[in-house]
Every structure is written in C-alpha cells, then in structure tokens.
Amino acid sequence: MPQLDAVHLLALAAALGWASGLRLYLTVLLVGIAGHWGWIALPPGLQVLASPLVMACAAVLAFVEFLADKIPLVDSAWDALHTLIRIPAGAALVAGLVSGWAGDGGQAWGVVAALIGGGLAATAHAAKASTRAAANTSPEPFSNIGLSLAGDVAVPTMLWLAWAHPFVFFPLLALALAVMAALIIFCFKFLRALVRRVRRTAPA
Fold this sequence. Notes:
- It comes from Pelomonas candidula.
- The chain crosses the membrane at residues 45-68, 80-102, 108-130, 142-163, 169-191.
- Keywords: Membrane, Transmembrane, Transmembrane helix.
- Residues 10-183 form the DUF4126 domain.
- Pfam families: DUF4126.
- This protein is mainly α.
- The protein has one domain.
- The protein is 78% helix and 0% strand.
- It has helices at 6-20, 24-36, 52-68, 74-99, 106-135, 142-164, 166-201.
- α1 packs antiparallel against α4, α2 (24-36) packs antiparallel against α3 and α6 (142-164) runs antiparallel to α7.
C-alpha cells in the first residue's frame, strides 16, 4: 500500500479541501474507496472513511446530491443548507490527513491544515453557490445541468491528479481558484444588481 510523501500529501490536502466545497459526499466516498481497496494508505484520522458503513452512507448522500444538484432552485436550497456542512467538513478532512503524518507536531499542523482546508472548501462552495444562484435566474434548465455535470467530473479528476500527477494538479488548482474568485465577484455583482432591479419594479 503506497505511503504518502510530502508532495502527495500537500496535493491531496489541497484537493480534499477544494473538492469538499463542491461535492462533499462524493469526496468522502472516493477517499473511502481508495483506502478500503488499498490504493493509498489512509492516515489514522481518515481510516474511518474506509468503513463499509461510512462508504454506504456517503454513496447514498452522493446520489441524492447528484439528483438535487440538477434541479433549478433545489440546487440553491441544497447549497444554502450545505454552507454549514461543506466548510467544516473540508477543514476536518484536511486536518485528519495532515495531523497523522506530522508526528509530534501533528496537533499544530492539524490546526493549520484545518484553516487551509476550510478556506479552500469555502472558496469552492461560494463559487458554486453563487454561480448556481445566478444560473437559476435563467428560465432554461440546461445551464444548471451543464454546471452540475462539470462539478461531477471535476472532483474525481482533481482528486486523481493530486495522487497520480501532483505537479499537473497544482497549476490546475491555481487556475481553478482564480476562476472561482472571478466568478464569486461577478455573480455577487450580478445578483446584487438583479435584486435592485426587482425592488425598483416591485409595487409599493
């Protein structure tokens, strides 16, 4: 069973935080499968993810999320609910990954990892939620489905790249974060302008 070196650890930590903000349950399921089948050696803090019970629960929730994320307005309600779940879960996953590797300084590194993982999860979640909210202003459902399918593909792809090709993963992650930051700013301005127009046209 392959052990994690420093490069793979950093790549997987970043991938876990980022992916948790997009598809938390799919991320948990994929990590659990990788550990259960011996593709990677999960640190003590993440070994519970390889439990059949945890994987089964994650699979059910990932399927529910897959369906909910394809339905306009339902996707935004799902995102709103998961603001309280994805960010702390992303922080916990990254902390669990790093703390077992860091030895005597595991607790301190775990806190640092949690902050970074939570920040990556928050960025990905904010970009997803704001983009989908903006897409929901369009009457056609195809943009929502297209955006959702892109997320379904991006998460396993980035997790695989973090393990198999970390030096390809890092520039792609930097690009993804830059695009997400731009989307957050653009969608926030768009939604704020939309709210102002609705208020101006609403009857007194």
